[in-house]
Write a structure and sequence with these properties.
CATH architecture of the largest domain: Up-down Bundle
Radius of gyration: 27 Å
Order of helices and strands: HHHHHHHEHHEEHEHE
Largest sheet: 5 strands, mixed
Low-confidence stretches: none
Mean pLDDT: 81
CATH topology of the largest domain: Four Helix Bundle (Hemerythrin (Met), subunit A)
Strand content: 5-15%
Number of strands: 5
């Protein structure tokens, strides 16, 4: 009888090991797919969002080309225009056909393909036409043809194409969230099933393993928490989020501390944004935030600079090795660029359009202060800009900062 019992226990033990092995492999596969999916979706959303900014850049370059004076200036703008057109085309082909370098799978869903190839959006044809017009504008031509190309670019780039890009980015974001949620549900189901098998087997075969099982559960919980921190982009605007800002600021702080160089933080806030939401609704408010984010990104061209969504209608930028005068110029460029978007805002008390107030803080890091002091300085400058009437830039520097004249 004992031998038979041992045989049953051994059989149960082997079955339990088989179940656990299968579930462990399944958990590993789902976790791997989740990480890969998040990375791939982040790349897709980033590239599709970048298309929007590239189209805006193309519009600005087209306007500059038409109004520029001098062969050298025109040639430089044409080169930038061709480069921008090439980037738009490359990114577009990567989103549709795939590009391993950009981590683009090239397998759009039926909904995405409908946006690209079906009425009423026809984004694929619009992008091709837009690129063709950009290249045509960059070539020598008669004034009349130049006007025709420019008119098409402005009409498409300022409204139709931007709306189409917004539509496809939202669809990518929606599908990404659904896919990640599906994998997380599968992960949760595997976790629940694993715990159930272990509990049943522990009751009949290996109770001493309960402690080890709880440790495994905690490890899996920690893995889930780690996966939740992988996303560093703001889901609405597509730019870095608050977590990215904090991490980037800490790194730049250490760099500036070693090199004894100035470090700048710019805090920006959309003026009377609550009134904007109350007047136009939250959906239009989200569109406003995305357009403002894109405008701010355009103003920071150095690879070492960072623009992030700090929270709500507030944005923050970190500029490494930037003195007070340079920081003030960047902030003023941001203010002017947002104002030039001409986003109607009848609820504003200072303008007919959306504006921003900016506070600039500059510091040379030392061991006696922390990054929080720099953020506080920029925040104080922003507060002063608001009190002074908004739609302006106020700069402040810490006591240890001395700029060479």
């Amino acid at each position: 009888m004992r031998r038979i019992l041992n045989t049953h226990l051994t059989r149960r033990y082997l079955v339990a090991l088989g179940f656990i092995a299968v579930l462990s492999c399944s958990a590993y596969t789902v976790t791997h797919d989740l990480i890969r999916t998040q990375a791939t979706n982040a790349a897709v959303i980033n590239i599709s969002g970048r298309q929007r900014m590239l189209s805006q850049k193309a519009v600005l370059l087209s306007q500059e080309l038409v109004h520029s004076i001098g062969t050298s200036s025109q040639q430089n703008i044409k080169l930038q225009l061709v480069e921008t057109a090439n980037l738009i085309e490359k990114s577009h082909n990567g989103l549709i056909k795939g590009d391993p370098v950009m981590n683009l799978p090239g397998s759009p869903t039926d909904e995405i393909r409908s946006t690209y190839f079906s009425e009423p959006v026809l984004l694929d044809q619009r992008v091709k036409n837009f690129v063709r017009e950009l290249r045509a504008l960059a070539k020598p031509g008669s004034p009349s043809s130049t006007d025709q190309h420019l008119e098409y670019i402005l009409n498409e780039g300022k409204s139709n194409l931007l709306n189409s890009f917004d539509l496809v980015v939202r669809q990518y974001q929606k599908e990404s969230e659904a896919e990640v949620e599906k994998l997380k549900n599968a992960e949760t189901a595997i976790l629940v099933l694993t715990l159930l098998v272990l509990l049943l087997e522990a009751l009949f075969v290996f109770r001493p393993m309960v402690k080890s099982i709880m440790l495994d559960r905690q490890e899996l919980s920690d893995t889930n928490e780690h996966l939740s921190r992988l996303s560093s982009l703001d889901g609405l605007t597509g730019i870095p989020n608050r977590r990215s800002f904090d991490e980037f600021l800490n790194r730049e702080w250490q760099r500036a501390l070693r090199n004894h160089t100035p470090l700048t933080v710019i805090m920006a806030d959309i003026d009377f944004f609550k009134a904007y939401n109350d007047t136009y609704g939250h959906q239009e408010g989200d569109e406003c935030l995305k357009r403002v984010a894109g405008a701010l990104m355009e103003c920071c061209n150095r690879p070492g600079d960072l623009v992030s969504r700090y929270g709500g209608e507030e944005f923050a930028a970190v500029l490494g090795d930037t003195k007070m005068k340079g920081a003030a110029c960047v902030a003023e460029r941001m203010r002017s660029r947002v104002e030039s978007l001409k986003i109607s805002h009848i609820g504003s008390k200072i303008s007919d359009f959306v504006t921003i107030s900016l506070g600039v803080g500059v510091i040379i890091p030392t061991g006696e202060v922390s990054p929080a002091a720099l953020v506080k300085t920029a925040d104080l400058a922003l507060y002063q800009a608001k009190n002074a009437g908004r739609n302006r830039v106020v700069t402040l520097k810490t006591k240890n900062y001395f700029e060479e004249e």
